[in-house]
Amino acid sequence: MTERPIPVKKKAPKTPPEERPRVGAPRAIADLMPDIGRAAFRKFGFVQSSVVTRWADIVGTKYAGISAPESIRFPAGQKAGGTLYLVVASGFAPMMQHVIPEIMERVNRFFGYAAVAKVTMRQGEVGPVVTERAPPPKNLKPVPVELGDSLRDIGDPELRAVLESLAQGLANSSGLPKIS
To answer: Do 151 and 98 share a structural domain?
Structure first.
């Protein structure tokens, strides 16, 4: 028997990175962070990372100051009827025991279905709650006159402020918004 040589495939020469054309547009780090955070939160038991980031909105600042979600564990193969694990500041566990049904209701309302069926608490250190959000910067263009007159008739000052902000955003935009 004669031995046949094994054919060797030649690789195409690689172009240096600085010479290759970009395939996609550059992306902001803020666009990438939810994907990175989502993987880390899932690893530690959170299906939805916004439970942690919006804890004060879900349970209120009073309870968010003394408690923090640690993880949510679901039965194998299910995404409902899970156990929410909370860290509660020392000395507040008896009070929190009384409001567990309300916390479960609020968390389930946040998810939109009965995600949590049980809450387990452990005492620990809870970090400070930062709930203040900086107001958006004022836009340079004034609200158009035709929109401003109709907004002055609104009695609720908070609703009027939100609608004025929306009108300014529309007035300052150039064309249709881009959805990516």
So the answer is: no
